[in-house]
Amino acid sequence: MPVRPLSPVLLLVLLGTCAAWAAPPEGAPLLAPPVPSAPVDLERVEALLASLSLEDRVGQVMMVGFRGTRLDEDVEALVRGRRVGGVCLFKHNIASARQVARLNDGLRRLLADHIPPFVALDQEGGNVMRVSDQVVRLPGNMALGATRSAELAYAAGRAQGEDLRRLGFNMNLAPVLDVNLNPQNPVIGIRSYGDSVSLVSEMGRAFARGQQKAGLVTVAKHFPGHGSTSTDSHEALPVMRETREEVLAQMEPFRAVLQEGLDGLMTAHVAIPHLTGDEVPATLSPQVLEGLLRQGLGFDGLVLTDELEMEAIVQRYGVGRAAVLALKAGADMVLVPWRYEKKIEVYEALLAAVHSGELSAGRLEQAVRRILVAKLRRGLFQAPALLEERLASPPPPDNGEVAHLIARASVTLLRNQAGTLPLARTARIAVITAEASLGEALQARAPHVTVLSVPAYPSASRRAALRRQARKAALAADVVVVGLINARQQELVTAAAATGRPVAVVSMGLPYLAEQVEEARAVLAIYSYQPAATDAAAAALVGDIGTPGRLPVNLRELHFGHGLELTGHKQASATPPPAPRPPSVAQEAAH
């Protein structure tokens, strides 16, 4: 499916705003920078900066990762030895909430006599979830987009921020502000709130405000936008072929969130030739970072690069060289999470660049100053409560409820032929799913439910056997429910429907795929396979709740805002659908 261009009406509306985004003429006033969330003692910032050696300053602009779930000599040599400014944890670092809380405390102790580090992770919700226990498990951004509720987005950001702070994190690399204009985008998809500029702007602003209210350093991503691309920057350099005006329009969510006093942005490794005149990735482009972001948007917060070890960067520049170019372009921190030798390469390349004069001491000082301001603003220099006290204190019960409120408000009924839904509780229901929680949630609500568990990514040799099993399960049932995560489950829908039994599909992934299961009589989109989402799907299937969600993207035949009301359900949804309102200019023009 081709990328859907933004309409001329939307472009005309946004260009009035975007005209100020390019670097202004010399002497022209800049847009006002975001107001800090808390007053920062600038004299203390300067005193801290003056106390740092050149080597310390180079360490501060590095955010690193490491392997393993505990500290060892290698980690200590990296974090304490290089006095790094931040550490980013990934799934391979996290075994449990208690374990990672202890790890985070240990990381802070390594730099107890120095500048405290950012302790960061990617906790977006949905399919990007690094910590899974003792935290709210949010359904994800596209589910939030389907709710149309800025209030729920704010509650999601605040609940997640509170839970992560309790575990010792002080930074989250979220929310995602990319507008998913390309249905075939290989890297954004349901990580986006939708394909409407105004919807992404509204949800992103509310989520960021909530997360920062919880005291978490919030780094939105991926500036200037990764949502229209067809290439994953982990594998190659994406090139945005849209016009300058279309590219600027996609940046509107970032401009909107910056107005909330956003702490930081993460850059995207995307080339924008119609904006910059070349194919230099935005991460390394002075025109994008210093010109567009700093001067045009007036943003004086923290700028962190995406991983410099991605192929989009490595293939053309190498990691060390890229780190120097990123700092020169206007970035403040470089993310180097994987290979140990690449971290050393970056450290040495930055030192050499300052010694040679290629990277000015003033530019390095500016970057470190922004890092120190962010750390002071969010209280990183204040000692946290004792670890055991924090672990003994359970998360607020309301935090967990936020996920269920979002999930129930996001359930979107795309099709319901011949009143297939709600399902009769007395019916024999066969569930075919790669996500066990969907079957479990239905078994809790109906007495005659059988579950066929299938792999999410079956091998070619297993597919024929799975089709036979799906047919057998359908023949023994009155109705079949198929959980759809990816295209691998489509043939199971076909196999079940071929028996003549009615099939209801629960789409737990990209909604674009849901439209392709033509044999299904009913289709629910929930945009997530997190437990709260599958529980909401089960509740809707048997009529316990309604279907208030509305499509946050355009499909081939179903358009933005589509959603059917489920008639015959037994009680109102926990979160009723929003009252009808006229579409915003962006929605009206783009959709």
Automatic annotation (TrEMBL):
InterPro entries: GH, Glyco_hydro_3_C, Glyco_hydro_3_C_sf, Glyco_hydro_3_N, Glyco_hydro_3_N_sf, NagZ_Beta-hexosaminidase. Residues 568-591 are annotated as: Disordered. Keywords: Glycosidase, Hydrolase, Signal. GO terms for molecular function: beta-N-acetylhexosaminidase activity. It catalyses: Hydrolysis of terminal non-reducing N-acetyl-D-hexosamine residues in N-acetyl-beta-D-hexosaminides. Residues 411-554 form the Glycoside hydrolase family 3 C-terminal domain. It comes from the Bacteria. GO terms for biological process: carbohydrate metabolic process; peptidoglycan turnover. Residues 54-372 form the Glycoside hydrolase family 3 N-terminal domain. It is an enzyme of class 3 (hydrolase). Its EC number is 3.2.1.52. Residues 1-22 form the signal peptide. It holds the Pfam family Glyco_hydro_3. NCBIfam families: PRK05337.1. Belongs to the glycosyl hydrolase 3 family. This is beta-N-acetylhexosaminidase. It comes from Stigmatella aurantiaca.
